[in-house]
Amino acid sequence: MGDLPKARGFSATASHTNILRQVVGRLASQSLLHSYKRSFNGFVAKLTEEERNRLSTMEGVVSVFPSRKKQLHTTRSWDFIGFPQEVVRAKLESDIIVGMLDTGVWPESKSFSDEGFGPPPSKWKGSCQTPSNFTCNNKIIGAKFYRSDGEIGVGDFKSPRDSEGHGTHTASTAAGGIVDEASLFGLGSGTARGGVPSARLAVYKICWADGCYDADILAAFDDAIADGVDIISLSVGGSFALDYFDDPIAIGAFHSMKNGILTSNSAGNSGPDPATITNLSPWSLSVAASTIDRKFIAFVQLGNKNFYQGFAVNTFISGSHPIVYGGDVPNTAAGYTGADSRYCFPDSLDNSSVAGKIVFCDELSDGEGALQSGAIGTIMQDGGFKDHAFSFPLSTSYLTLEDGAKVLTFINTTSKPTATILQSIDVKDSLAPFVVSFSSRGPNPITSDLLKPDLTAPGVDIVASWSEATTVTGLVGDKRVVPYNIISGTSMSCPHATGAAAYVKSFHPTWSPAAIKSALMTTASTLSAAKNTDVEFAYGSGQIDPIKAAQPGLIYDAGEADFIKFLCGQGYSSKSLQIVTGDNTTCTSATNGTVWDLNYPSFALSAESGTSFTRTFHRTVTNVGTPASTYKAVTKAPSGLSIKVEPSVLSFNAIGQKQSFTVTVAAKVGSKVLSGSLVWDDGAFQVRSPVVAYSTSS
């Protein structure tokens, strides 16, 4: 996806048709599905594998990749990170436009009321697709939907309206208005609000019930950039990392960066395995998910009066009911045995033995099998993580194996066993914050010496607005239609970071995407290594602190030229870069930069286990704090890691003044990650960067 040619009269559609004509002949017009023509140059086409291969070898083609399907990856959360409702806000906040690329939005939600809003800012160049079931206002100032193949599934809306809930939740988390007494049937009750309640929203519906397609993601980037958004939020990702120019999210984010727009990405939900992070381009913000100091538990009371603490967002109120073990009630008529039914798979349970009862299951599931069999509730047990709570379509609690064994013993030794699943309550989580198990981890699988994720934000048990076209779980049989819901994911942490970035942008409207990202990273709160054994590969620089980020003292700035140098150093050809940048960029000895010289706000280096090595990083900081200030370098390093900064004192006498320095890191890496830090401290501002050395071999 390259820049649009600067020639007058250039027609993207005609150009793309001509290219396709060389591949498919007279069928070019039918093959062409969409031309990206507002912010960058590219197209979507139906091709055979042979045609794809032929196209990829043509002059002027950077890459050809299939339109893969990607997955969708707050009453307490903002207060928990020290960002209260009464925080000082910039007058320009109402001019900030947050672009949400997601499942659309439920415009009638109270979170999107435009009461008190004036007209959209004059910079807005977008539009609102307004079919019969959707209307924009002065809060949601733009809305569009994308489906390149034209196939709209049953239950989906052919409009920007959200049928899934996910997009409504993320939009209200980032920039929703202030709504008192929001809750899910009383759970998580409080004031729901986004990070920038006065900001405007531009909604780009790229995701549907069957997923989010690359072609539609790129089309939305193309429009959002041209429409004039200030921040792009994208809680979507693939199942594995892709090379930068094969990844439509990285490509779209590159073009948004070129146009002064920061893209905030979810890190992914494939943790806690290492190197599972998928959104990891250096020009975008990669956000992990961490807990807040509130968790939801659902107690189970057995007929013998014993209580066991489970984990679930259980809104159902039900009394005592008979309880059976799934393994004892298989659907033998359909060929199932107890070895199947113990897990309560759909169709595996005997309805007549389960109807009206609580069924005990040996595995966490979505509860659909139990509900389908007529169960009144289900208790599940397994050895999985219990650091976040799920919602289910029936009364549910999720137990540890230890407590589950006691429940099973009770069932097996009692003639008429009964149990009660109590409605959930919220309790204080004294361990918070820590990065949740599902949050995708580093190290970076594409560029090992670029630390990812960048930072973390609240993403567990988040209360936010929801679509009333679906239910709490979206599963068949769930009849609970709600205005607010509680869900978890890096999809939830991403819009927190988006809101924080928009907050910083409102105070510093001319700052580059890299400057805003630097401010968020260098002011992040450090997390406990004892609670996060994956350390920086879990949380990056730490947990966002929007108030500090608005006044960071120093910033590590970078622009297109810096990232081009980085890409040259990564082995990209001049030809590929020229097509992407739209200029005469070439990779030479002067522009072939190493990853260690990219002006990034963190430091990472790697080698095989047992290796001793030294790396020198070159960095430049810009003064955005006090005009006359002197910063001293304060380093912290464990045994096996040495950090030397030259010069160790930086003096400034003006805002905007730049100073350069080198950081020389020596390390001997083994099985353990070596975590250190560099802090530039002038007494008023502490500008912190993590320094990480690790082994690339197990």
Automatic annotation (TrEMBL):
Domain Peptidase S8/S53 stretches: 94-542
Any Pfam family hit: Inhibitor_I9
Family statement: Belongs to the peptidase S8 family.
InterPro entries registered for this protein in UniProt: Peptidase_S8/S53_dom, Peptidase_S8/S53_dom_sf, Peptidase_S8_Ser-AS, Peptidase_S8_subtilisin-rel, Peptidases_S8_3, S8pro/Inhibitor_I9, S8pro/Inhibitor_I9_sf, SBT
PROSITE patterns: SUBTILASE, SUBTILASE_SER
Hydrolase keyword on record: yes
Inhibitor I9 domain sequence ranges: 11-73
SUPFAM superfamilies: Subtilisin-like
Lineage: Eukaryota, Viridiplantae, Streptophyta, Embryophyta, Tracheophyta
Name the UniProt record assigns to this protein: Cucumisin-like
Highest taxon above the source species: Eukaryota
Example of a GO MF term: serine-type endopeptidase activity
Active site: D102 (charge relay system), H166 (charge relay system), S491 (charge relay system)
GO biological process: proteolysis
Key words of the record: Hydrolase, Protease, Serine protease, Signal
Sequence ranges assigned to domain Subtilisin-like protease fibronectin type-III in this UniProt record: 597-692
